[in-house]
Amino acid sequence: MKKKILIIGGGLSGIYLGYLLKKEGFSIKLLEANDRIGGRIYTKNSHTTNVELGATWLWRYNPALLKVCNDLNISLFEQNMDGDALFEALKSSTPQHFQVPKNQEISYRIVGGTFEILNKLKATFTEDQIELNQKVLKIDEEETTLKVTTKTSTFIVDFVISTIPPQVLVNTVHFSWDLDSDFKQIANNTHTWMKDSIKFALVYKTPFWKEKGLSGTGFSNVGPFTEMYDHSDFENTHFALMGFLNGGLANETKEYREEKIQEQLFKFFGEDGKKYLSYEEKVWNEDQLVNFKDDSFITPHFNNGHVIYQQEFLNGKLIIAGSETSPKYGGYMEGAIYRGNQVLEQLKSSFQ
Questions:
Q1: Confidence of residue 345 (pLDDT cuts 50, 70, 90)
Q2: CA gap 179, 194 in Å, rounded
Q3: Is the CB of residue 8 less than 8 Å from the CB of residue 32?
């Protein structure tokens, strides 16, 4: 247990792995390239209201994640779907009212915001165990250890666990040895969840949609937003709508996207829709820590959980983890937890 383990990436995968390994007595250090932890969990406070611009929901079929929430005393609440939903089929047509079927799988949100998971996990770390603004540039293999180099620091460790998206790893970190060609090819063709998404949120003074008998749920074939949901908090004291924009708007300006959303909000809700207090968005393909830009299209979840990620590299000194490597629910929060549990068992067995 005196072995030193360095974790690359401070998203849910990395923070949860650090939490597990610390409980088992391992010596850990976690490096995060960003100035915040969370990765694709991004709870932003806007006009005193928490809005999710990253991972948002979990479901009954997420047992590993539900167990973590239970262990950390994190409360959940149902996504509000009460009232009529709206569907826009054509630009020339008025959005139609419909009822979401009652037998739909219930989506749950986290009281206080998704980031609450990270807050609870991070509370178990000491101040020196997480370092922000530490982008890993190079990994060298030495006789019995690995040397990890960032712009400002060098770390000598026994094991490295990467939790960043595999495609980002093989294209942004230099290795002193030749990567296995099969691994490199698979990594370059592994889809990174969220990288194609544009999320937006609108904060309002009142939940005017509820007063109109609406759930806040909306779908559109013509955009700019393709789907939208009530995003008010558990206490019903802060009110918002949140959803996804058409990915084709990624190359437009924020001002252009907001202008088009205003037009669509008017069509859905009248003047009330345009009276928001703040507009927030996150274009995930602009985030270089999530998306390695190239010209190829990768089908969502393609190669997530590929068997090659379960292999040992450098005689077990390098482990490729993270949600995309999970054989179950790859890309999702559940996948991050499932894969973290796998890696813990892998490390424990190697010391038996």
A1: very high
A2: 26
A3: no
Q: Six-digit token pair at 352?
A: 């038996």
For 269-322, how does the pLDDT look when each residue is reduced to its tens digit (9 = 90+)?
Answer: 999 999 999 999 999 999 999 999 887 889 999 999 999 999 989 989 999 999
**Both structure tokens of 3:** 């072995």
- Neighbouring C-beta atoms of residue 67, cutoff 10 Å: 12
Angle between helices 63-71 and 333-350 (to 10 degrees): 80
**Per this entry, what is the length of the chain?**
352
Radius of gyration of the CA atoms of the chain, in A: 21
Q: So what's the pLDDT on residue 159?
A: 96
pLDDT at 154 over 80: yes
Q: Mention every residue, 6+ apart, whose C-beta is less than 8 A from residue 345.
A: none
Nearest residue to 339 (alpha-carbon basis) of 161, 89, 141: 161
Domains of the chain: 1-41+124-194+288-352 (3.50.50.60), 42-113+196-286 (3.90.660.10)
Nearest to 5 by CA among 309, 25, 305: 25
Q: How far is CA 217 from CA 53, 137, 197, 258, in A?
A: 17, 43, 18, 19
- The span from the CA of 281 to the CA of 202, in Å, is 9
Residue 89 has pLDDT above 90, yes or no: yes
pTM: 0.96
